[in-house]
Amino acid sequence: MNGFDRITWDPAQMNGQPCIRGMRLTVRRVVEAVSLYPEREELFRNYPELDAEDIRQALAFAAASLEDMAEETPVA
Fold it and tell me: What pTM does this model have?
């Protein structure tokens, strides 16, 4: 995945989960924080080490990590 210069992986840190800029803050935690603090001001107050680009890349990385596939379901 290209374009994620703020997303880092280190097998020795956070069990190898993708993190933000080498911090002990996982992409998963950032996405969760966005859902818990929909107001960006409150999110930045609780996570002062983050900036807007960190959040943008975490959300884009999470979206890019999901499969975008539809399956047909049989009609009953």
Answer: 0.83
Q: Residue 31 in contact with residue 59, Cβ under 8 Å?
A: yes
Burial of residue 50, with CB atoms counted within 10 A of its CB: 0-12 exposed, 13-18 middle, 19 or more buried: buried
Q: List pLDDT tens digits, range 43-75.
A: 999 999 999 999 999 999 999 998 877 677 777
- Identify the three-state secondary structure at position 31: helix
Q: Which amino acid is at 9?
A: W
Q: What's the Rg (C-alpha) of the chain?
A: 15
CA–centroid distance for 29 within its chain = 7
Positive or negative torsion for Cα 45, 50, 51, 56: negative
